[in-house]
Amino acid sequence: MGWNKPIHDLNERHLVSEGTSFSEVTDIVAGVTERKAPRLWWILFAISTSTTGVLGATIGYLLWTGVGIWGNNSPVAWAWDITNFVWWIGIGHAGTLISAVLYLFRQYWRTAINRFSEAMTIFAVICALMFPTIHAGRPWFLYFSLPIPNQMNMWPNFKSPLLWDVFAVSTYFTVSLLFWYVGLVPDFATLRDRAKNKIRKWIYGFAALGWRGSNRHWSNYERSYLILAALSTPLVLSVHSVVSFDFATSVEPGWHTTIFPPYFVAGAVFSGFAMVMTLLLIARTVYGLHDVVRIKHLELMNKIMLTTGSIVGYAYAMEFFIAWYSGNPYERFVFINRAMGDYWWAYWSMITCNVISPQFFWFKKMRTSIPAMFAISIVINIGMWFERFVIIVTSLHHDYLPSAWGNFSPTLFDILIFAGSLGLFFTAFLLFLRWFPMIAIAEVKMVMPQADPHWGHDDHHVDQDDVMTAEPALAEE
Amino acid sequence: MSNQDTRPAIWRSIAEKVDPRRRDRLAQQETGIQVGSLLPENSLVNRRTFLTVTGASAAAVGLNGCIRRPSENILPYTVQPEYAHPGVPLHFATSTTHRGEAVGLLVESHEGRPTKIEGNPQHPANRGRTDAQLQARILDLYDNERSGRVRQGETESTWAEFDAWWREKAGELGDGAGLRVLMPSSDSPSVDRACQAFSTRFPEAVIHTWSPISDENGRSGTSLAFGAPHAPWYQLGGSSAAGPRAKAILAIDCDFLAGERGFLNNARGFAEGRAVRSPDVQMNRLYVAESTLSVTGMNADHRLRISPSQADRFLRAVAAQLAGSDGVRIPPSTAAAVSGANEELPEGWQSWVEHCAADLAANRGRSLVCVGWRQPAHVHALAHALNVALGNVGTTVQYFPEPDRFERHGIGELVEAMSGLDTLLILGGNPVYDAPSDLGFTEALSGVGTTVHLASHLNETSAECGWHLPMAHELESWGDHRSMNGAISIQQPLIAPLRGGRASHELLAMVAGIRAWRGYNLVRNTMRERLGVGRFERRWRAALHSGIVQVPPARPRTPGLRDADVAAALTDNAAPAPNGWEVVFAPSYQTWDGSEGNNPWLQEMPDPVTKLVWGNAAQLSVASAMSLGLITEADLHREEYEGAFPSGWLLNVTTEAGTLSIPALVVPSHADEVLTLPLGFGRTKAGEHGNGVGVDVYPIRSSTTLGFASGVEVRPAGGREVIVQTQDHHSMTATVTWPVDFVVDRPLAIDATLEEYRETPNFAQFREPTPSLSPLWTQVDYSAPRDPAMGGVSYEPFPERRPPREGAPARYKWGMVLDLTTCTGCSACVIACQAENNIAFVGKMEVALGREMHWMRLDRYFVDAQHGGHESNLDDALVALQPVGCQHCEEAPCENVCPVAATTHSAEGLNDMAYNRCIGTRYCQNNCPYKVRRFNFLDWHGEVADMKRMVFNPNVTVRMRGVMEKCSYCVQRIQYARIQARLDTTVDGEEINERRIHSDEVQSACAQACPSGAITFGDLNDTSSEVHRMAHLDRQYSLLASIGTQPRTVYLGKIRNPNPEMV
Which end of chain B, N or C, is less surrounded by CB atoms within 10 Å? Predict the structure, then answer.
């Protein structure tokens, strides 16, 4: 193990382009919020705000008329609504994984993308939370699902996975938001200090919570960041596990499966990384972040996608094996029907997008080619949407009693709401790019060579007091 | 009841006598609110009507509470009407005619507002049973499109003006040479009396009858066989040690379980003959030879596909075969007329005829041959001859003389006389829509001087007639009916006419000049003739109370068979040879002949056979569809995965009467080269629910082909139309052939033959065993004392913490048993449930999306005749029927997953649904393996018109959008019975003695309606109850028991009784 050795000793490349100085990093990131927005930003913002407007109008109509404007029916009582919910929640996974799990594992390359992906998490979870809210028949009574003391002595049903979902997703959202915000505090202070006008100074100053960069501030900051990372890490596993319980604890063939929790988590990370990749590639090009977000980062992300994509592929195969091995005729039928039935196209789209497309990342050339990874990341996003659609709709539409079988086809409003949720997400994200430091300035600086205590001299002395090298892993010396 | 048109029997002044309308005018000038103006006809009302309307409005206002609205004031009774306790429904016995047969009804009335029709258990024709159409008639009462005004041409008029016009007209008509009446055939003694009076008043006038579906052939058949019309009254049930009365039944083109006259009696008897309680019980066997798969055909043990024209030849073959059997004495001339008919039979007939005839001969005196209305008179006569020869008369079939019912003149005769006719009165019916097309009725109608049409709606005929008169609903008017077996029952109104109409017999009596023509007086006077003057009042009241007139019962006759006449008819009418394509005109199970066209409950009721809703389609067999090029061999295999079997191609059908275009629907087990065209659709002036639904097939039905037509040309027209079915052609097995070959065995509607049942009485448990896994948590002990929360003796706020009272009785354990052996699939339960539980209808396109709301659905599966075989047999597929409502699982998957506990288990084992708590996540619907939960995706009820709102059952919440609903086991009925039982509670010191609910005290709506008694409901803890006995029969099983849901509803495996010789 050489985690305590200087970068050049390990023959690793720098995480930031060589020769980049601290002030250049600050300028690159903070400058985005200070300069005028590029034309492309305005174009994208106009598109996404108008899509959000469509979303608002459609939700208004939905609340006025009822969920019957969608294609949901009996037996397919959940369709695009819950598909979108699970898809967005899955996308939200990458943020926490990158910011918390990779942080605890000291994967320094995460610093270039963590702010970005955490923001994506927050917005994806907001989009996700919208769906269970509006999919309910009477959303104005949703507070029934919260454990609020009331005169009827009536509590929610703690046996219901949907209730677990309420807790899991809201906890996840809260912790992610805190985590994100704590990380933002030093950077807000930087923006405040660079601010040229009063309003800007006041707002960023308010957001920076009086950060002065003192040693005590940094010490508290590091500790709280570590605690929040430790809190978030189990959430990465729990949220999508709990979401998968919505299906796994049911009696429906195709849903009632023990493989769901790990399979859903892997799928969530898979889709989350794909979405980060898509967004990052756009932002990197538009704002010229090549010095901070390097091919090295992208390649590492592609490796994670290759891994999780393969896990997902394994899960697909294992579901089929178990359906056969269980000897349960209903289960067998559902899986054969999934692949060969009415929705075969959805199933095979899913397989193509999720299992086959990431296999290109076995080749370094593909892993480091920006057009290839951009295309594949979009394909994976589509495939993961189909995965949720396949699980939900093909299991429900032909279950136990053939007399109750039916089919689902989406209506215009299904499509508008889904498209609208993308609009909401991108609106929020573009606003984030415009007004927030999209890359964690302070954290990036920490992993730059200048932050290395040995920077500038060649002696290999080990300082036991150095926080970063406090572990006694010196056996190999 | 409007008074405006009444000549006052009592008058106060000369002015009033001279001008009866003066009183009305004076009344109009009175200050204050005119009650009359509230009514559609601006008519004044009497005190009773006022109170009734007030009560009904009060109830309607009460219903407003279900919808969030500003508060409104309710008018209290100033004088409490007799017997009326707000909140306590009253039941009144009445009767009506249904498919040519009188049926007794008990109608539930809430504060003067009839809400639910049920059968009268004392009436011999239906013994408390009803069918879907009878259940749905309550909705017709509150159809706000019912006509409420007299019209003369385009202008509005009044009854008084019509009466004045008629008085003048009657004078002009003299002896009635220019007067004719057209009315549907009737079974009413009062109508007979009015007809007699009419003939006396207008000796030259003629009464014609027309009903699109009539038993005319059957009447002619009995006339031919016995010299006079008789009603054949089947006695199929009445099981004894030797088995049911009828052990072998041969039905030829005869839907005696769901369509023919007297079918409710037949369904009950047939079910009694299949009430298999133990393996040693005898059971009847049903042979059906028919073209269209009917409800009767779905219940057949052996079914032969024959085209309708070949029924004649088929019955002759059976007769010829019987003539050679020992002990069957077919009269000589008849035997001679059919001799040799059993030779050179078409493929598949030979062994069928032999074995069927042998079975009939072996069960002499315990068999039955019946023929349907579509077949010509001589076929009926031959069937009667066979029944006589088999010694069935007096045992399985009783013949009751039918009175002369003024039916000698048909509509054809009328059309001939219409040119230049002075006056035509059409009393009910809709001949412009349903008259045979070759007659040109509509064109002829314009040649009549004055036409008067009495109808419930401004329908197709009204539009062509001069006068339109609104007809009162049968729950609004007095009347009387005679059953096939001679029993007479009174039709008593439950409410004054909401739209101010008159009944057809009232109008006829008025026209005939009977002074006491008002329904009440008319019926009373008719009954006075029958019951005698002595003690009339007591007997009249008794008749009203019990719904049946206690007169000496009619005796069945043993009429002598006219052998020579039958033989001559058989010789004169040679059995026709097959002649290309044939069409069958079948009444729809939903709208019948079209008269129920504006009833959305029936339009949305899935057809028992095809599961089609909101429309009709030409049914044809698989082979026929292939020969027309509609489907290919590949389509048959495609079906295995895909939801919808291809359907809806447009066909051009040409008969001698005309051509029409209709979408096609492939039905397994349909006869080849035969097209079934359901009547009763394609109305243009039915109302908002009936207009433009389906295709009107009357235009190709001529007066010579009322039942079926041969030599028809059928060609694909190109193009397709959307037809909507609630279930597709799925078999239970859903075989997969590619890429792997395996059969998904789905033991859902489990069946066995009688022999298999005798070998393995618990055969159902072998196919779907009840799992013996230990439960996850403590099981509820339903034999434990009742939850004290129900006892009300403790003030502990948490019911579960109250200790049970010392020696408290066991609680109730509600359960339902569905006997698949006796279920005929008629779907009466579906509509009964809809009427009882305020279930919304959703319309064609919503059903197409899969959003129908029926709490009880009837699953219909086709079963391959060879069990377990891979060969799909689409032509002789057996049918398995299974009513499915909420199973009330002990370990209900729906309950666990609801985040807000809106669906929970009651202390008595009901799976309760709290609508107020439901937020509509639909998770319960997903997790229900039976998919019986229904979601209000949209506001299905919408803004309900005040009149339509009156049909709601006040004891059941009207659900808003966004909430889930499902079968509640009619919990409101359980609670009502509980209140009744609790009223009998006695307290003796510390002892609280609460009467238990008797097991026969509560019946779910479906169980009550079921014509064959296939549904049993009650307390499983009561070991003496019927439901307990049924639930513990050896052939019981639970649907999808292997999942471990522990359903409370129990199914009894279906027993088929195939002839061992024919398997």
Answer: C
Predicted-complex ipTM score: 0.90
pLDDT above 70 as % of chain B: 88
Q: What per-residue confidence (pLDDT) applies to A14?
A: 62
Kindly report the backbone phi and psi dihedral angles of residue B678, in degrees, each rounded to the nearest multiple of 5, phi listed first.
-70, 130
Residue A175 located in a structural domain: no
Contact call for A68 and B851, based on CB within 8 A: yes
Residue B350 has a CB neighbour count (10 Å cut-off) of 15
Tell whether the model's pLDDT for residue A2 goes beyond 50: no
pLDDT of B800:
55
Q: Does A78 touch chain B (CB under 8 A)?
A: yes
Q: Write the CB contacts of B642 (distance below 8 Å, at least 6 apart in sequence).
A: A341, A342
Domain assignment present for residue A158? The answer is no
Decide if B1057 contacts B753 (C-beta within 8 A).
yes
Report the b/e string of A107-120 with b at 16+ CB within 10 A.
ebbbbbbbbbbbbb
Q: In whole angstroms, what is the distance from residue B232 CA to residue B222 CA?
A: 8
Helix boundaries (H) for B907-987: 923-927, 946-949, 971-983
Mean pLDDT score across all residues of chain A: 87
What residue numbers bound the domain in which A195 lies?
A: 7-137+181-475
**Three-class DSSP category at A139:** helix
Q: Which are the contacts of B263, defined by CB distance < 8 A and separation ≥ 6?
A: B99, B101, B131, B255, B256, B257, B1011
Q: Cα angle at A122 between A118 and A128, to 5 degrees?
A: 135
At B372, which amino acid appears?
Answer: G
Q: Find where tokens 């002829």 sit.
A: B444
Measure A406 CA to nearest chain B CA, in Å: 6
User: Is a pLDDT exceeding 90 seen at residue B909?
Assistant: no
| pLDDT tens per residue, range A222-256 | 999 999 999 888 888 888 899 999 999 999 999 99
Report chain B's mean pLDDT, rounded to a whole number: 86
> Structurally, how many domains does chain A consist of?
1
Mean pLDDT, to the nearest integer, of A454-469?
Answer: 51
User: CB contact, 8 Å: B848 with chain A?
Assistant: no
Q: Which pLDDT value is given to residue A20?
A: 75
Residue B585's DSSP bridge partners are: B677
- The CA distance from B429 to B436, in Å, is 13
Chain A contact set for B925 (CB, 8 A): 74-75, 77
DSSP letter for each residue of B269-287 = HHHHTT---STT----EEE
Name the DSSP letter for residue B437: G
Instruction: Report yes or no on A154 lying in a domain.
Output: no
B742 touches chain A (CB under 8 A): yes
More confident residue, A389 or B31: A389
B846 interfaces chain A, CB cutoff of 8 Å: yes
Give a yes or no: residue A165 inside a domain. no
* pLDDT band, residue B702 (cuts 50/70/90): very high
Q: How confident is the model at residue B953 (pLDDT cuts 50, 70, 90)?
A: very high
**Residue B742: count of CB within 10 angstroms of its CB:** 13
Kindly report which listed range (A112-121, A204-213, A463-472, B219-228) carries the lowest average pLDDT score: A463-472
Q: Tell me which residue of A353, A369, A356 sits closest to A277, measured CA to CA.
A: A369
Lowest-pLDDT range, A300-309, B267-276, B407-416?
B407-416
CA distances from B885 to A22, A400, B937, B1035, B1047 (A): 72, 15, 19, 20, 11
| B638 touching chain A per CB within 8 A | no
Cα torsion B361, B362, B364, B369: sign: negative
CA distance linking residue B200 with residue B207, whole number of Å: 12
CB B152 within 8 A of CB B166: no
3-state secondary structure of B779: coil
Verify whether the Cβ–Cβ distance B727 to A403 is below 8 Å: yes
* Of residues B641, B899, B938, nearest to A65 (C-beta): B938
Residues from chain A contacting residue B859 (CB–CB below 8 Å)? 401, 403-404
